[in-house]
Amino acid sequence: MKDTGDITDAVRLTAVRKVYGRRDNQVVALDGVTTRFGRGTFTAIMGPSGSGKSTLLQCAAGLDQPTSGSVLIEEQELSEMNETALTKLRRDRIGFVFQAFNLLPVLTVRQNVTLPLRLAGRKPARGRVSTVLDQVGLAQRSNHRPAELSGGQQQRVAIARALVSEPAVIFADEPTGALDTRTARDILALLRHASQAAGQTIVMVTHDPVAASFADRVLFLADGRLAGELDSPTPQSVADRMTHLGAFADDGPLPRLVTSRGGQR
Ligand SMILES: Nc1ncnc2c1ncn2[C@@H]1O[C@H](COP(=O)(O)OP(=O)(O)OP(=O)(O)O)[C@@H](O)[C@H]1O
Ligand SMILES: [Mg+2]
Predict the structure, then answer these.
(1) Where is the ABC transporter domain (predicted)?
(2) Three-class SS of residue 16?
């Protein structure tokens, strides 16, 4: 069962804005995002390329600093933490699966998976590492190096690395993008299990309506803003909404949104 007895959110974003670049070539990657991720929930984040999904994840995970706005992880305001405290929080409480897998080429699969724990000075339980490698289907590859693996296998190493320390929150940026349908389904079931059985909070970026349907909720981003939300998503309901967002991306902001924001853009 889900840990719904707790009133606190795992992650809360308030008016998060992220502007890249200098004055003459500024990019507004996030334009005032307010949302929350309850403990033990599984949320998918969708939206056109460039809509700010990775930026949202990086800011929410304390890997990047918003230009303004607030990010709370387990009630701790990230902007008020020094680098040491932030590093500790990321190591102890957060798992991250990057869009680029960020594996160290000189380390084996097993070493890559256990690296964050070792950096935190913790010794992984031996059984735990094998269990996770088995769950992602890489038990036979534990002594190989990333260059000896396929793209999808490397992606699964990155997922195992995020799962192994059983962090409170897992942020995953397109974790199944390089996987075949069946392997993807196994990984998604694993993530869903992590939220439902272990009470971990999962925030996953994906372009795939089927992947999103494994989540409890889908957040849609367009142009750096939240553009909708869907509870208990199905592949069909997500696909319908994506079609709408596709038009949104091609034709610029919908008139309705412009007026509701006071004609800001
Ligand atoms: N370091 C950076 N410097 C300048 N602009 C950036 C930087 N990182 C991202 N951007 C811009 O911010 C916007 C949002 O980027 P982001 O990577 O969050 O998009 P995304 O939704 O993850 O896209 P995709 O689906 O292609 O991964 C884009 O316009 C991108 O070009
Ligand atoms: Mg991205």
Answers:
(1) 11-248
(2) strand
Q: Report the pLDDT value the prediction gives residue 248, as an integer from 0 to 100.
A: 52
Task: Copy the structure tokens of residue 97.
Answer: 């699966």
Say what the pTM is: 0.88
Pocket test for ligand 1, best of 19, 26, 51 (most atoms within 8 A of CB): 51
Torsion of Cα atoms, 235 then 236 then 239 then 244, to 10°: -150
- CB hemisphere CA count around 62 (13 angstroms): 28
Strands 169-173 and 94-97: parallel
Least confident of 87-91, 99-103, 132-136, 141-145: 99-103
By CB neighbour count within 10 A (0-12 exposed, 13-18 middle, 19+ buried), where does 50 fall?
A: middle
CB-based contacts of 71, cutoff 8 Å, min separation 6:
11, 12, 13, 14, 16, 59, 60, 62, 77, 78, 79
Nearest CA, atom 2, ligand 1: 20
143 SS3 class: coil
Q: How many beta carbons lie within 10 A of that of residue 44, not counting itself?
A: 26
Per DSSP (E only), the strands in 39-184 are: 42-46, 68-73, 76-77, 94-97, 169-173
Superfamily (CATH) of domain 9-97+167-260: P-loop containing nucleotide triphosphate hydrolases (3.40.50.300)
Helices (H) and strands (E) in the chain, counts: 9, 10
Q: List the shell of residues around ion ligand 2, using CB closer than 5 Å.
A: 54
